Amino acid sequence: MNCDNNPSQDPLELTRGLLNTTAVLRNGFLDVLGESTSSLAPTLAQRAMNSRFVATVYERLWRPTSFYAASGVTTRAEQHRAAAALRLSNATRLLDVACGPGNFTAPLAQRLPDGSLAVGFDISAPMLTRAVLDNSGPRTCYVRGDAHLLPFDDETFDAVCCFGALYLMPEPFRVAHEMVRVLRPGGRIAILTSYAGQAAAVRYALTTAARSIGLTVFDRQTFVDLFSSAGLVNIQQQAQRVLQFVTASKPG
């Protein structure tokens, strides 16, 4: 069934049906927080991600430049890798946690079968306003909320991802467990986050610099162990420079 031709497949209404709380429509996205910003950490990094200026330049300038420098992987290659890892050809519901301006949500939505839904989820209203403007489509909807308590029931999504944000969050492991919670049996999860696997001196300098602006640098085993302890299987990890890409499956 194609979303373009069937009003019942409107992505806003489909997403409302998935939420386990009320939401208001705001600037084209669904907002479950209202005016609340109490979950925002008062760090330089968090303030940047909630800046209108950063939201404007993030997709075309900030992210492509910084992430290529951090990993040596282009945005297009990242998107291709993400789609393959999440096995989107077999998915009908995708959740993109901390989606920012939708720079992954929209291209990943295009990889989904007709009638599917990609939900971009973020706490930043400026980022989501930009996502609606730049990365909307017949399979996409954006939701403002707190990833520490995802407003979805258990086992709602076939694929869940978070690319380049867990290291910004005050409680990243809680967010990761929430991602696992809303993943269906047989579903796939993928994250891209920071990586401290360098020589000791480099690792110390990197960690110190990151901490000064509110970032966390994770070691090689952190998310591999977290996914394993959560019962996930087929865990794979790729490390490039200061970033790591980790994928896993929830047993069916």
UniProtKB/TrEMBL annotation:
| Residue ranges that the Swiss-Prot or TrEMBL entry lists as coiled coil | none
Gene3D superfamilies found in the cross-reference section: Vaccinia Virus protein VP39 (3.40.50.150)
Bilayer-crossing regions: none
UniProt keyword Transferase, yes or no: yes
Q: Name the InterPro entries for this protein.
A: Methyltransf_11, SAM-dependent_MTases_sf
Give start and end of each Methyltransferase type domain: 95-191
A Gene Ontology biological process noted in the UniProt record is:
methylation
A GO molecular function annotation here is: S-adenosylmethionine-dependent methyltransferase activity
The name on file for this protein is SAM-dependent methyltransferase
Question: What is the organism of origin for this protein?
Answer: Mycobacterium haemophilum
